[in-house]
Write the structure tokens for this entry.
Amino acid sequence: MSGSEFDIATLTESQQLALSTYTSVTNQDPNAAIALLRRSEWNVQIAIAKFFDGEAPDPVEEARAAQAVPPVPSESRRREVLQNGFIRPSRSHLSSRRETAPRIVPQREGQAIFQPPLILTILFTPFKILFGLLSGPLRYFGSIIPVGNLFANWGLIRKSPPRPSIVGREPLNPRDTAVRFALEFKEQYGNSDLSFYENGYAQAYDFAKKELKFLLVVLLTPEDDDTEAFVRGTLLAESVVNYINDPQNNIVLWGGTVQDSEAYQVANGLNCTKFPFTALVSQTPQDSSTSMSILARISGVSTASNFVERLHRAISQQKPALEQVRAAKVEQQASRNLRSEQNSAYERSLAQDRERARQKREAQAAQLRAQQEEKAALEAADKKQRNLEQWRSWRAQSITAEPSPASKDVSRISIRLTSGERVIRKFEGNAPLEELYAFVECYDVLQAGEVSMPGSKPEGYEHEFGFRLVSPMPRIVYDVDSTGTIGQSIGRSGNLIVESVGGDDDEE
């Protein structure tokens, strides 16, 4: 881990967006991600491709490194040319460089072949005929003098593995191809404890890169005579199986036969020249934070002890670097978890504070509504009382005076008020019952002598009597809305009781 962390706040908004998109896909450390994005000119797609496919060496840096290497003395260079015929690259220089392991995505079988236009076909026909005439003598010359093998042994050219016959073999997608290989391996060599990764090479490559594991690639061909001996004598040996399955070694086993298109392309990508072929691939953080390199190659038949020894040596050399990266990722994940827990705790505390504030606002609003309702009720009651008093003063002016003794159609009514006072008064027999109710309602105003004061009916006020007149024996309730007159309803005399509406008296 680096001692200092890059301040993300110094990045622009577009750069922060690119960093967020890149880390969400690759889950890489932000400092290493920023460095890779800078080398990719902040292009997210190029950076992701470099992360998964491996970052190619920078030509500018290689040129600077080449300039820093002291030139070979001319005399020794001339002697080497005279002895070998050409300049052979230094083996120590080549061995210090790890070979990048490419991420290979297989091309689909049966893709349409490009057909050139007719005019181009006509123009290149003479060259095609000339090539056909010269290819025979050149092929014969090559069989006599194996120039290609000589160049391949010197490391100047790379030989491609021969493509086995695939007649009658159905092309499948990478996952199904891997499953088919595992089933064919089991049918041919019997049950074993080896567990092949049942997906494509690219998926195994990505899995090993993400989980910091070692990818062991095994490529076979049934047309090679050494395949049977390698599988039964080396790959299925107990020591090899135990070493591959040991969880401490973190090995992901992927296999394929070059009869399949994907395995054949993998063989070309890994520079395989001889079968059976085994390659150990791993992430090499000492070279680059995204590079995947070939740590070991095993071509042809090898003894089980030698096979395990070579794998163990390569894994032991690379394991400390991976453990360091793994520890950094664990620390980074722990830091993320801590920040996530802190953010969650902060969000919970913030939610609680918001809830308390909401409850407080609701309580204050409820208290304010109660105060407003109480104030409105008091104002309504006060207004009602003022309207009632104004109505009483107005109505008392229109109450007819008590008839004279000479009047014949008279009803003598004895009324017991709610205060217990009894009032006896005469009323016109043809007066409506409302006149009797109005007399009871305005009795206090009449007694106070305020009838002479001018008054008007309250505007918009509809008076409702808060009592009823009842005859006790027999009990008869005289409703104010009755259309009958006092004489018709009560007669020439009667005893009435004033009962408040909603009182405790039971109505029969």
User: Anything to note?
Assistant: The longest strand covers residues 292-299.
